[in-house]
Amino acid sequence: ESGGAVATCCVVSDDIGGAGRVMQPALRRVHYPDARMWRRVPGYDSEDGGGQSDGESSSGEAAASRLADDEADANAQAAFEEIVWRLGDRWAGTPLVDFAPAPAKMARSGSETPSPQGAPRSGPHFRIEQTVAPLVRETFQWNGLHATGDQNWVVQWSSPALQARVYGDLTEFQRINHFPGSTELTRKDRLWAHFRRMADVFGEEDFDFVPRTYVLPDEVDLFLEAFEREDTLWIVKPQASSRGRGIFLLRDISELPVDEPSVVCRYIDNPLLIQELKFDLRVYVLVTGYDPLRAYIYREGLVRFACMPYSTADRHLRDALRHLTNYSINKVSPKFVENAGLQADNVGHKWSLSALRKHLRCIDVDVDLMWARIMDLVVKTLLSVAPTIAAKSRKATAWRWNCFELYGFDIMVDEALKPWLLEVNLSPSLQAESPLDRHIKSALLSDALNLVGVPRVDRQLVAASRRPRARQSEAGRATPTAQRAPPGAREGLRAIIDSLCEEELQTLARALQEGTRCRNFIPLYPTARTMQRYADLVDAAAARAESPAPAHCGFSMSSSQLLAALLRGGGRRVPQGGTDPSGG
């Protein structure tokens, strides 16, 4: 019995050498979005536009969706122009670095050393701290940034282990690749707690995309009860392990490590298969801010296959090559086939998302619906943790645009096209171990930095902008600005803008402007349709925040609610207990 490389053709076949048989699944009718929730979905190409099928693209619903998106774009531009007019010369409009992917030859040319303290180079600088990130370094250097060992950099790439003082010392020109409190999203126990709270409000079926999980040894008794009650497989993951090490499937309770820290999850035993092989998706999600929330999903990503045919027979339960899709485990197997060329991104045991899209469409799987469900999962996950991370960021950082985060969402899809969130990675690997890796990750990194917006300023300006946190906090947070919105402003926009402090206006202007720099990122939230779909969830999350957002100069709205109001042109839903400044 052997598992060959995943084939390239789209012909439905029962044998391992063919493309595999994937039957159109029966869809489960719960609170899922339809396939037109977003303009595009990951894996799109220039030919199909990444949206609906030909039959859907001309439908009235699709036309209405495009019209709503266009209206939101126009509202965003109008709000941005009016805020900039209001700020006047206080809107700096700092030039940004225009990043391009670093070519492969950079990997062979060696690394630049940090600038000597006594002889700094001119232009913007970067710093890499407590991590090894060759592709990140190459991208910075290729685009004219210089390494530094001091604090006068414009962008820092670091491990998640940052001390709180690092955030508090940042200037308005600096960007750093982590948020305070992002472990709320990447620690399974914390994320599970957030999901439970949201499920209590909206019901289990809206937050049932994480397999039931137990943290041992604290919840061993609860798990034992579930084990006796449910005839199912469980998967055990050591708490401190990575890259799939120590993971195994559990059917015999005597094998349970009751005294060791571990996580036990219900095993997803009906995965969608291609050529009899199990696979998962590495989906890249960029969050440029939690206050207000702005999230984007990348056009490309990776499909990672197990390299032996899937089987839950007792004799195969210990075979990691059938059940685990981790690249680090499968790549050492003689069965593993590495992708060797960019033009054949559907060959071997690692594909691109665009290759997956083409394959699934050829065998009549509703790919757009599948992706709408995955994107719905991502938005709900982010909205669940947003108030907590936003509160921690407000406490730790001097400026709300200092931080960004590139997450790796690991997602499995079952045969009913239901997506399951396996985990969220705080520092997804950017190692380029194959041409496909290099192509996807180098473009991902440059597009992410462009969307974040890295100021093109030199180290002298960064140093001159450093000042105590107390003075920064006083710079416009207390009172509304004096200048009124222009006479031509719509009433809703005028009411909102006239009520805001300078710091809030600066934050919202940056949030509105970044939407023009998406490139290969797809806006997840906020968009015209997601503002409507998730309005109740946003209000509920804001209401239960451990540290609520401060009132904005006389009315109670979170920054996410403010941004949504601007994208609607001033109209908004009024959260319970709040006051609508637009009078609507």
General description of the model:
The protein has helices spanning 54-57, 60-87, 134-142, 164-168, 183-186, 188-202, 220-229, 320-323, 327-330, 353-362, 367-396, 435-452, 459-464, 469-474, 491-497, 502-514, 528-533, 535-543, 559-567, and strands spanning 125-129, 146-147, 155-158, 175-176, 213-216, 234-238, 248-250, 262-266, 273-274, 277-290, 293-298, 302-305, 350-352, 405-413, 419-425, 521-525. The protein has 584 residues and is of the alpha+beta class. Strands 9, 10, 11, 12, 13, 14, 15 and 16 form an 8-stranded antiparallel sheet that branches. Strands 2-1-3-4 form a 4-stranded parallel sheet, with helices on one face. The longest helix has 30 residues, at 367-396. The chain is globular, with a radius of gyration of 24 Å.
Main features:
584 residues; alpha+beta; four-stranded parallel β-sheet; 19 helices; disordered N terminus
Give a quick rundown of the structure:
The protein is an alpha+beta fold and 584 residues long. The chain is built from 19 helices and 16 strands. The longest helix has 30 residues, at 367-396.
Strands, helices and their partners?
Layout (H helix, E strand, L loop, with lengths): L53 H4 L2 H28 L37 E5 L4 H9 L3 E2 L7 E4 L5 H5 L6 E2 L6 H4 L1 H15 L10 E4 L3 H10 L4 E5 L9 E3 L11 E5 L6 E2 L2 E14 L2 E6 L3 E4 L14 H4 L3 H4 L19 E3 H10 L4 H30 L8 E9 L5 E7 L9 H18 L6 H6 L4 H6 L16 H7 L4 H13 L6 E5 L2 H6 L1 H9 L15 H9 L17
Parallel strand pairs: 1-2, 1-3, 3-4
Antiparallel strand pairs: 5-8, 6-7, 6-8, 9-10, 10-11, 10-12, 10-14, 11-16, 12-13, 14-15
